[in-house]
């Protein structure tokens, strides 16, 4: 992983925060997106809302990257399309999940992706993760157990289980993106556009199936000002704005720093759920939230440190071979 070094000048901290602030805003809007989705979605309108959410931004992405889309190879189209199918599953699980659980639970449970992804990668590559990372993963799992039992020990809700499945699906998506060779060299904007296009196609097909809920057209006609504001927030800020900020920030700082700032998403999800939605996780739930945040943060640091050590060892071996 690359590291972030602040140049020695009086203006450097200010310039760093000028880059960090938009990324932090993305983490905030992503954290509040669970509450926004919960406010405009019911069990019968999940698919319709997903169609509307991404149909709003897809034309903008296509127009912005039309020339680069045309430059994609057939293999890149297939790879991005496959990733889009996985992405569709993620959004279905997340949106149905948030309908059936609290915004606080949704944001914190989905943060387990930060722990699950390195574990899955270790299983695929057959490289044992560091002990510190395994301890952090255990802490996060314990936190989720407590979080979902805030009102007393009962079976986890359907929404909690769906969010957990979404975390696993996000892990599959990350691993697939790293292992599908064709997409590694693809332009980021084109890759995202094809993925979202594939996801919208899945949602549109599902919306046409009888018994899957209200149609997008019916839902759009029934929306009032509050619902349209929520939908535009999800479309413009949580999707379009977030994507362009990430592209802009990664070119001006390190991926590690961007990832660290985006990792505060579950904190904002919990804050929004408690402050705006009146979520009351109870003492057990609050303890679980703290453990999830601590475990994911610790796990991220442990994974980054292990990656840095591996990179240093590889550099040392390369230097030794060059010297020999």
UniProtKB/TrEMBL annotation:
<feature type="transmembrane region" description="Helical">
    <location>
        <begin position="132"/>
        <end position="152"/>
    </location>
</feature>
<protein>
    <submittedName>
        <fullName>Permease</fullName>
    </submittedName>
</protein>
<feature type="transmembrane region" description="Helical">
    <location>
        <begin position="283"/>
        <end position="299"/>
    </location>
</feature>
<keyword id="KW-1133">Transmembrane helix</keyword>
<comment type="similarity">
    <text>Belongs to the EamA transporter family.</text>
</comment>
<feature type="transmembrane region" description="Helical">
    <location>
        <begin position="79"/>
        <end position="99"/>
    </location>
</feature>
<feature type="domain" description="EamA">
    <location>
        <begin position="21"/>
        <end position="148"/>
    </location>
</feature>
<dbReference type="Pfam" id="PF00892">
    <property type="entry name" value="EamA"/>
</dbReference>
<feature type="transmembrane region" description="Helical">
    <location>
        <begin position="46"/>
        <end position="67"/>
    </location>
</feature>
<dbReference type="InterPro" id="IPR051258">
    <property type="entry name" value="Diverse_Substrate_Transporter"/>
</dbReference>
<keyword id="KW-0812">Transmembrane</keyword>
<keyword id="KW-0472">Membrane</keyword>
<feature type="transmembrane region" description="Helical">
    <location>
        <begin position="228"/>
        <end position="248"/>
    </location>
</feature>
<feature type="transmembrane region" description="Helical">
    <location>
        <begin position="21"/>
        <end position="40"/>
    </location>
</feature>
<feature type="domain" description="EamA">
    <location>
        <begin position="158"/>
        <end position="296"/>
    </location>
</feature>
<dbReference type="InterPro" id="IPR037185">
    <property type="entry name" value="EmrE-like"/>
</dbReference>
<keyword id="KW-1003">Cell membrane</keyword>
<dbReference type="GO" id="GO:0005886">
    <property type="term" value="C:plasma membrane"/>
</dbReference>
<dbReference type="InterPro" id="IPR000620">
    <property type="entry name" value="EamA_dom"/>
</dbReference>
């Amino acid at each position: 992983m690359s590291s972030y070094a602040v140049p020695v000048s009086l203006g450097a901290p200010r310039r760093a925060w000028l880059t960090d602030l938009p990324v932090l805003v993305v983490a905030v809007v992503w954290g509040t997106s669970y509450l926004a989705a919960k406010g405009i979605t019911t069990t019968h309108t999940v698919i319709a809302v997903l169609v509307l959410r991404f149909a709003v931004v897809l034309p903008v992405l296509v127009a912005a990257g039309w020339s680069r889309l045309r430059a994609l190879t057939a293999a890149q189209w297939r790879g991005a399309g496959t990733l889009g199918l996985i992405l569709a599953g993620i959004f279905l699980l997340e949106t149905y999940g948030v309908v059936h659980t609290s915004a606080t639970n949704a944001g914190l449970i989905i943060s387990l992706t930060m722990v699950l992804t390195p574990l899955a990668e270790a299983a695929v590559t057959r490289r044992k993760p560091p002990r510190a990372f395994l301890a952090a993963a255990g802490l996060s799992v314990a936190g989720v157990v407590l979080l979902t039992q805030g009102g007393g020990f009962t079976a986890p809700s359907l929404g909690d289980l769906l969010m957990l499945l979404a975390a696993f699906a996000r892990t599959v998506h990350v691993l697939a993106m790293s292992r599908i060779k064709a997409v590694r060299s693809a332009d980021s904007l084109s890759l995202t556009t094809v993925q979202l296009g594939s996801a919208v196609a899945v949602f549109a097909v599902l919306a046409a199936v009888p018994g899957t809920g209200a149609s997008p057209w019916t839902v759009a006609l029934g929306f009032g000002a509050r619902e349209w504001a929520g939908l535009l927030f999800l479309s413009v800020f949580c999707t379009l704005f977030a994507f362009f900020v990430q592209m802009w920030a990664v070119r001006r700082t390190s991926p590690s720093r961007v990832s660290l700032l985006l990792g505060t998403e579950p904190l904002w999800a919990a804050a929004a759920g408690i402050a705006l939605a009146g979520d009351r996780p109870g003492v057990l739930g609050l303890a679980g939230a703290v453990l999830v945040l601590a475990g994911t943060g610790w796990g991220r640091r442990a994974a980054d440190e292990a990656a840095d050590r591996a990179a240093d060892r590889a550099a040392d071996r390369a230097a030794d071979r060059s010297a020999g």
